[in-house]
Every structure is written in C-alpha cells, then in structure tokens.
Amino acid sequence: MSATDVPIPATGDDACAQALNADLGWALGVVFRSYVKAANYVMDDLPGGPRGYQVLTTAARALPATQLAIAQQLGVDRTVMTYLLDDLEHAGLIERQPDPADRRARRIIATDKGHALVADLQRQLRRVEDHVLSALGEPERDAFRDLVRRLATQVDRVDPVGDPCQIVEDVGLGETPAPTPRPRRTRSTTRR
Amino acid sequence: MSATDVPIPATGDDACAQALNADLGWALGVVFRSYVKAANYVMDDLPGGPRGYQVLTTAARALPATQLAIAQQLGVDRTVMTYLLDDLEHAGLIERQPDPADRRARRIIATDKGHALVADLQRQLRRVEDHVLSALGEPERDAFRDLVRRLATQVDRVDPVGDPCQIVEDVGLGETPAPTPRPRRTRSTTRR
DNA sequence: TATTGTTATACTCTATAACTATA
DNA sequence: TATAGTTATAGAGTATAACAATA
Prior knowledge:
The structure is a homodimer of 192-residue chains.
Chain A: H1 15-20, H2 24-42, H3 49-59, E1 65-66, H4 67-74, H5 78-90, E2 94-98, E3 106-110, H6 112-132, H7 138-158, H8 164-170
Chain A binds a DNA duplex (23 and 23 nucleotides) through α5.
C-alpha cells in the first residue's frame, strides 16, 4: 500500500463530526499524524525525509549492510533505495563501499557527519514524543508507551508482512452478511 | 498528509532492527498501519476506499450537507470531492440533490443502500478494532482506548489544522544546536 | 541461470488553475 | 465580484520492467 491511501482524518471543528468519528481508527490517526507531521518537520532538510532517516539509522549500525538488506528490512523497493542512497551520499551522510565478498554488492556505512546527524535527530524525536504525549501525566505516559509497544510487537509478530486478508478473515467476517456482493480486489479506476 | 509521507515501518524480522526502532513513532506506526490495512481491506469494494467511507458516513447524517461543507470538514480538496461523489453516486450509495436555497450548491444525501452499507462497514470496523487490540486483556483494552482518545482530543484541540512548526518550536528545539544549517522548507527534488 | 544495483517507463494520486453557472 | 461545482493539466511518488555486472 502506498501510503497514499492513508485516510484523511476528520480534524474539523464540528463537534458532531468528532462524536461520530470518536472511534479507535480516528483517534489513532490523529495521534499518529500529529507525530508524523512533527517528525517530517524535524527531518525537513534530511534527504528522503523520514525514510531517509530510517536508512541513515540503519547505515549507522555497527555492521554495514548491503543496499538490498536495508531495503528488505525497511520494506522499501530496491529502485527507491537507489534514489535514497544517491541523495544521502550526495549530502555526505553515507558512503557506498564495495563488498569484499561480493563484487556486485555495496556496503552502506554512515560517515561521521551522518552519525552526528542521527544522534541529533534522535534527540529531537524524543522531544516530539514528549510533546505528543503532553496531554498525559507521567505515569499514564509510561502506561501508554507500554501498551502501544505491546500492541506493536504483537502485530509485528503475527503479521510481519501485513497481509490484510488474514486480519479480517480471522475476525470472523463471515458472520456478517455483506449487503454488496464481493468481487474482491477490484478497485475501480475512477475514470480519467 | 498525503499519506505519501507516512514513513514506512521497519517491520523486518531482524531483532536488532526492532530494538533500534522500539520508539514511540515506530510502535504507533505499526499499530496504526495494521488498522489502516485491515480497514482498507474492509472497504475494498467501496468507491474511494477509506475516504469514500468518510464521505458516505457524513452524507448519512440527519442534515444533508453541501459538497463544499463535507470537503472542508474532511480536509479533502473540492476537486477530489467531485470524483469521490461521482463514484459513490454511480454505485448508488449517495445522491446529489439541488439545494432549494442556492441553485449553485448540491445537497448530498445517502440512499437506503448507502445507509445499509455504512451500518455494515461500521460493524466490520468494530471487529477490526477488537482484532488490533487482541494482544491486550479487557481492562487494558479499555485503558488504551481511553488514553488514545484523550491524546487525540487534545491534539485536535491545540492543533486542529496541524501546523508542524508549532509542535517542534514549542518543544524547545532551540536548545539543541543543529549540526546542519537550516534553510527551512527547501525539500530537494532528487533529480529526474 | 540467478542476483545486485541501476536506469527508463508507466501509472496513480494530488495540486493548481481554468471554466460554468449562479449569487 | 465572489462562490459552488466541474474539468483539464502538470507535478510528485511509486511500481514495473528492462538492463549491466557479477555470482
């Protein structure tokens, strides 16, 4: 799924809208987008934005990984990884070094400048977190962090790739008679 | 956001990656995307996907609203609203009726079929919620719902439009010396 | 023949700017 | 002149396929 299809939140000032949208999806979306928006701003001058950040942090690890390894780990396409690394390399944040064991592959490593930037961005992100959670008191904040983390690790465990079919089918969709017949996977192409 | 800028999660099976990414942003992203993915699947045969659902639910309200009112409330562009409504109308879920008070405007109302579909989708979404929260016990689940909702309403209150500058500046970014000079708002256009 | 990385092409979604018909 | 809705055009981002070098 391209992130393009993330639903836009009803952040309207209409009280009625809030009441109607006061479900988990709406609340999760508002909080998440708030975080993403601030994170985007923090990473505004980093090539590739948030995704560039993830690549950079991966490159800043102890063991240098190949492009493909990073791509697969982050779930980005090989071809996109090329563009991302081009920009990061141009900015002097990472370097492509030949893999001594495989002359096809390149090992990605962060430069000193890259390491310094990662450290700085991580500090700023920690502040963004605090700001997003500012509505909660200290103990509740910790409780929330704990709950989200538990949910995330569970999701990541049972559904690492993210197969949507599984989720819905598990949930017992069959019990609800669908009013519309379901020719699955046939998104219409809205003209043009 | 276009959701284009939603960062891709590190859902890799590498334990090291999880440790490194075990921050709030990562966890929020995994949980949110899990929900979105399932929601997308549920709304696969609904024209416009999740956004079409939001339009449809708005149209299913008691008071019929104009296209522009719905667009502003949902934060979607006027022009996109046209396409969305075209598809929804084609599917027989909504109708465009002339506004008696203003011959330029159209009042959007849901058909019987539209109302039935909304009810069905809401049922399915409630199941998706339960599935996403299945890692938690009953009391913790309620606690999580409560915490997210409180965070969301607070964010929606202090930052309804979602100005990213505010969030970061509030947070006291100035204390951290930026290693890179900051020509703000100058996202590079990565060639092509 | 399969795989790593690169490049080129097409497609989707969105944003912007016109255009019409009303006000 | 301004507004509700529509249409057309251009741009950003992504996915797909083809390609070169190496295994």
